[in-house]
């Protein structure tokens, strides 16, 4: 896809076919909700930050210590901090684009503005795929937690099914505001989970552990470790949806500061502590490297986070499709039989597909790595550069504005290049990992009882 550098209209004209005019201004995706039964724009920036922390932090604390074991403390720590700062910068670009285009609800809407109909379909499909794989990853973590807590007392498939059903019910509220307090509770719990894990590692360090500042390695192993931090910050694909349901979208950057400040600091501390006490043999998920009692406590505390994060992922996929079908109709804001029926079916489909993938595909965890490389590389990093270039060109004065703001133009261009590099290199190493796993007989079988 190439960005269209021919002007499509004046800055006051909606760039998306889903836009609606109110006078000469673009209308917010949910419009005026004063007299509606279902109101979406209820979130404060504090709850948005809590929902984002609940969604992404479990990804980082489960995988980052193992990534540190691959390349060593120094490269991993530098990479974790750099990608966190980089994610804050791209969050700023995404939020600015949303404020300039209030009709944008998801990545597909943004894709239509910049790349046209094909861009909308590609970015919408990518959002749905990534959200479903995210749901599958969380319900798989939930199954692992339940298996640990029950000493494998039930069949893994049954536990996966139980957790999937619970995820479906939590995802059902139509508005994110209904999940806001659960998100805050989840963010607190995943923080406690990380603290418990660090305490368990400190109380039971691995004897004769190997801890090094750097590890000599090849490109394949090094970039395989990069995919961990990239996935740990992979929450930007939800930003448009979250900001669309804020009372004051202009406060969204406050939520981004809290999210990135907390996650970057927490990731850095957690991965260093776990790696220093457990050494190069630390597993992924890291909680499996703790003694049984500590592992059970950590998994027990983190279980609710896995549930709510999975619900947020499936809610995101369902919400995108619902708005695509019913945008600016009464089914969005009223309690209609059709609206609720479609919503329930969409939530069920998102969780059901995730359950099937997680339970029936032996290489599901490897495929999750591929989806992270293909989609998170763009949604979290690369595509934000296009947003800045587009708005500067069309809203700030065309090519002269790009030349005048050469620092921003350079940074935006490098952001696009970085996203492309992470996408290509990450996909390559993820596919090679699958090939090597098959060759080494490391690929297991689907869950059976």
From TrEMBL:
Gene Ontology molecular function, alphabetical: L-amino acid transmembrane transporter activity
Key words of the record: Membrane, Transmembrane, Transmembrane helix
Membrane topology reported for the UniProt record: Multi-pass membrane protein
Subcellular location: Membrane
Cellular component GO terms, alphabetical: membrane
Basic and acidic residues bias: start-end ranges: 1-10
Keyword Transmembrane helix on entry: yes
Domain Amino acid transporter transmembrane: 42-431
Region described as Disordered: 1-25
Name by which UniProt lists this protein: Amino acid transporter
């Amino acid at each position: 896809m190439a960005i269209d550098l021919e002007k499509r209209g004046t800055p006051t004209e909606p760039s998306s076919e889903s836009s609606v005019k109110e006078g000469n201004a673009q209308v917010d995706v949910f419009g005026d909700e004063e007299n509606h039964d279902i109101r979406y724009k209820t979130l404060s920036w504090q709850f948005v930050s809590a929902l984002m922390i609940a969604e992404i932090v479990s990804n980082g604390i489960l995988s980052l210590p193992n990534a540190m074991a691959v390349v060593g403390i120094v490269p991993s720590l530098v990479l974790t901090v750099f990608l966190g700062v980089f994610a804050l910068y791209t969050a700023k670009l995404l939020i600015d684009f949303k404020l300039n285009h209030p009709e944008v609800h998801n990545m597909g809407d943004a894709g239509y503005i910049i790349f046209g109909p094909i861009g909308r379909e590609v970015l919408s499909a990518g959002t749905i795929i990534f959200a479903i794989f995210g749901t599958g990853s969380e319900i798989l973590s939930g199954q692992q937690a339940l298996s640990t807590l029950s000493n494998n007392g039930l069949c893994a498939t049954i536990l996966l099914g139980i957790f999937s059903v619970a995820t479906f019910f939590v995802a059902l509220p139509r508005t994110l505001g209904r999940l806001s307090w659960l998100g805050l509770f989840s963010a607190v719990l995943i923080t406690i989970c990380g603290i418990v894990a660090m305490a368990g590692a400190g109380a039971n360090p691995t004897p004769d552990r190997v801890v090094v500042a750097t590890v000599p390695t090849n490109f394949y192993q090094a970039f395989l470790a990069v995919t961990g931090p990239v996935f740990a910050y992979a929450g930007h694909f939800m930003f448009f949806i979250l900001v669309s349901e804020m009372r004051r979208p202009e406060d969204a950057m406050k939520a981004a500061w809290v999210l990135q400040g907390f996650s970057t600091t927490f990731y850095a501390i957690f991965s260093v502590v776990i790696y220093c006490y457990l050494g190069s043999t630390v597993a992924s998920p890291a909680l499996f490297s703790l003694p049984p009692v500590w592992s059970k406590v950590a998994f027990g505390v983190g279980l609710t986070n896995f549930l709510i994060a999975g619900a947020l992922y499936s809610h995101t996929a369902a919400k995108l499709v619902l708005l695509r079908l019913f945008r600016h109709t009464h089914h969005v804001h009223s309690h209609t039989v059709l609206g609720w029926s479609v919503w329930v079916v969409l939530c069920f489909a998102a969780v059901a597909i995730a359950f099937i993938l997680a339970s029936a595909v032996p290489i599901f965890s490897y495929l999750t790595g591929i989806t992270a490389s293909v989609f998170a590389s763009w949604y979290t990093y690369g595509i934000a550069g296009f947003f800045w270039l587009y708005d500067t060109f069309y809203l700030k004065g065309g090519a002269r504005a790009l030349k005048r703001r050469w620092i921003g133009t350079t940074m935006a261009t490098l952001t696009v290049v970085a996203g492309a590099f992470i996408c290509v290199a990450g996909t390559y190493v993820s596919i090679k990992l699958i090939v090597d796993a098959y060759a080494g007989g490391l690929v297991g079988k689907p869950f059976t009882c």
